[in-house]
Amino acid sequence: MQDFEKLGVFYLGKSFDLPARKRTDRLVLYESKDLVTHAVCVGMTGSGKTGLCLSILEEAAIDGIPCIAIDPKGDISNLLLTFPQLRGEDFAPWVNESDAQRAGVSVSDFASQQAEKWKRGLADWGQDGTRIQRLKDAADFAVYTPGSNAGISLSILKSFDAPSETIREDAELFRERIATTATSLLGLLGIEGDPVQSREHILLSAILGAAWKDGKDLDLGAMIQQIQSPPMTRVGVMDIESFFPSKDRFALAMRLNNLLASPGFESWMTGEPLDVASMLYTPAGKPRIAIVSIAHLSDAERMFFVSLLLNEILGWVRAQPGTTSLRALLYMDEIFGYFPPVANPPSKQPLLTLLKQARAFGFGVMLATQNPVDLDYKGLANAGTWFIGRLQTERDKARLIDGLEGASSGAGKLFDRQQFDRMLSSLQQRVFLMNNVHDDEPEIFESRWALSYLRGPLTKQQIKTLMEPRKNASSAVSSQAGAKMEANTSAKSGARPVLPPQIRESFLPLRSTQPDGAALVYRPALLGCGKVYFRDTKTNTDTAQEVCSIAPLVSGPAPVNFEKAESVDLNIDDLETSPAPNASFSELPSAAAQPKNYDAWKKSFADVLFRTQKIELYRSPSLGEVSRAGESERDFRVRLQQRAREERDAFAETLRKKYAPKIAVLEERLRRAKQAAQREQEQASQSTWQAAMTVGASILGAFMGRKTVSAANIGRAATAARGMGRTWKERSDVARAEETIGAVESQIAELDAQFKAETDALAMRIDPATETFEKTIIRPKKTDITVNMLTLAWAPYWESDSGAEAAWQ
Ligand SMILES: Nc1ncnc2c1ncn2[C@@H]1O[C@H](COP(=O)(O)OP(=O)(O)OP(=O)(O)O)[C@@H](O)[C@H]1O
Ligand SMILES: [Mg+2]
After folding, report:
1. Which of 101, 115, 164, 475 has its CA at 20 to 30 Å from residue 309's CA atom?
2. 285 touches 634 (CB < 8 A)
């Protein structure tokens, strides 16, 4: 098995001999990069779709490919039930009590039986606990539960933020993003919003569009406020009041407000932000299988969330560099209702766009469903691989064959309807027909035994048990980074002080809404903004960073301490020239009213920048590559992993090209040898050569897959082989014939060994996911620092009896 794991091929199972109704020894391997053209898995209930798809996710994880798996039923979480030691006590907490009862044994006995069953099942497929351990080590596995804190909860707070520039610059994508966000939000409110007809939809879209086009974020609170007083006076050619009168708008705003205020909704607003990059990779850059469980949600909530998630995924995908290797996966089981042929739910558009565009970015989508009618045919034409299991009805079968025919003709291939019909009619559980547009012909196979314990759907409580240990670990971190509350230390506040005209004043923007009972107070501070250049020829660094820092001004002999300055995420353009209304001002230290002090402070600020500014770069010793300025360790590791994968895939391709003609020659020789032997010895029915080893049965053959004979460069090889055949005819000796078969067999074995040696070389390579990086620190020269601005800045705070909270963050 290990030989393939290095080469980016997934172990799906073994080929299945339909007429004989049994599986053969031939491994069925699937090239990971074929998944960038997406896969669809169809089959009736119990046909083994989820088992197959989870096994594919296991293979992907072993290969370091992260995945977001949307789980409407609860059984994808089974991927967390991995027990390398395969002991009964590992299984015990997860077996079904009712199953044990039915079997008439105690839970612990039943668990031992299940463990034994899994051990045997795995062994039957050439797998064991070591491979389970490898799976566990290769990736992080987590269950996310939006709208609930059973697993890791996900906050949708940021989902109304302006989409990234890549999306905003693409008019069509931007329009789609607005429309699907509006539709999904209205769906949650129970309003069926037709994008063209419904005024609710038109208004929400206009509000989202107006904010987002300038890169402004919205939250639900702001949305409520803007529904009541929209930022525009007209919609199309109509005056907003006649199009959607204010009392009706108020009713819509109230509905949204009630949703926000409803007791359950709070859990949607807490937890980790819905951020695709952080779901796909841990902070250390380890790939993650992120299972998003939505079984506990209502239909409207599911649709709402799935649409938001798909939009986020689309945004992330579009920001990735192009590649032909698989980078990440989206898996959605039970796609029913999300991707229908006729209706237009908000999940459909982003999914369709993903199917059409994601391949260029190495992002594969895998969809599973019981019924082919659940799937939009336009999307299906974009699926490169089909896994078809046993189907329920003749109609389902006919429909599928139609779809397949469409997909093959799209790929410019001949299609034999009857052949497919015959094959599909005789499939049994876990036996699938794989039709991969990258292969020459379809393949029937039985899915391998899953490494994870497929116990069936997990309840919310079980997910909680499963995720409890890691949530405890991560909550310790998040409470440290929790909301910043400061003690109410400000001196008595009053009116805005009057200052000499040489002193420039600016106001930090107000970025949060007023908490109940809090008053707005501006506190004085110094704001310094500068530019720092970092140049280093050794690491090829030439980059500039804008820095803005703010240091509070206090009364006393040392009114400002830049060492305590905090860097702020600000553009000079964000600064206001006047304060927000109804605010009061803290007392200004007298030093801050003397213009000459500012020149001195400017110098100290430059000095502080010189001493504190640095960039930290990571260097991979094995690849000699250095991270870019501002690139996190996670992003650097992820980038290197993808590069290694691209190189690996290219190497695999080279191997295929190299071995294809050699295999062709040997196969042809073998065929001729058998023919000749047969001619010579019709009577020798039990000859040894009937069991002759073919390339197909070798490891190399499995690696070559179903593409062996079609490679363009086979022609020449085959001619050579025919030449061989002629020489053969001249020898009419059975013994010789068998001898030659033996010789060809050993040549095949030799080729196989040669192939193995070449792939072993890959294993020596260092894995960028785990290697230790060297750190390089680059500091600026004194002359590489410019201070662009140093002014008195007023920072707004919400002050109340319980403390003060920065209002500009
Ligand atoms: N690869 C596998 N390894 C071990 N057991 C499997 C595998 N695939 C399927 N099974 C067994 O078969 C049962 C049914 O398979 P599975 O849940 O995959 O069907 P399905 O096609 O997803 O059905 P549904 O449409 O009802 O979800 C599983 O519960 C499991 O016990
Ligand atoms: Mg299933």
Report:
1. 475
2. yes
- C-alpha–C-alpha distance, residues 449 and 135, integer Å: 14
Closest Cα to atom 15 of ligand 1:
48
Distance 788 CA to ligand 2 centre (A): 61
User: Minimum mean pLDDT among 104-118, 339-353, 552-566, 692-706: which range?
Assistant: 692-706
Q: Which of 369, 310, 319 is nearest to 345 (CA)?
A: 310
pTM for this predicted structure:
0.82
Q: Spell out the SS3 assignment of 208-255.
A: HHHHHHCCCCCCHHHHHHHHHCCCCCEECCEEHHHHCCHHHHHHHHHH
Q: How far is the CA of 47 from the centre of ligand 1 (A)?
A: 6
Res 779 pLDDT > 80: yes
Q: In whole angstroms, what is the distance from residue 9 CA to residue 27 CA? A: 11
* Nearest by Cα to 392 from 16, 17, 42, 21: 42
Tell me the pLDDT of the chain averaged across its residues: 85
Residue 287 DSSP symbol: B
8 A C-beta contact, residue 399 and residue 451: no
**Residue showing tokens 């001249």:** 730
Reported confidence tier of residue 399, pLDDT bands at 50, 70, 90: confident
Nearest protein Cα to ligand 1, atom 25: 45
Q: Give rounded-to-5 percent helix, strand, coil for the chain.
A: 50, 20, 35
Tell me the percentage of the chain whose pLDDT exceeds 70. 89
Which atom of ligand 1 is nearest to 449's Cα? 3
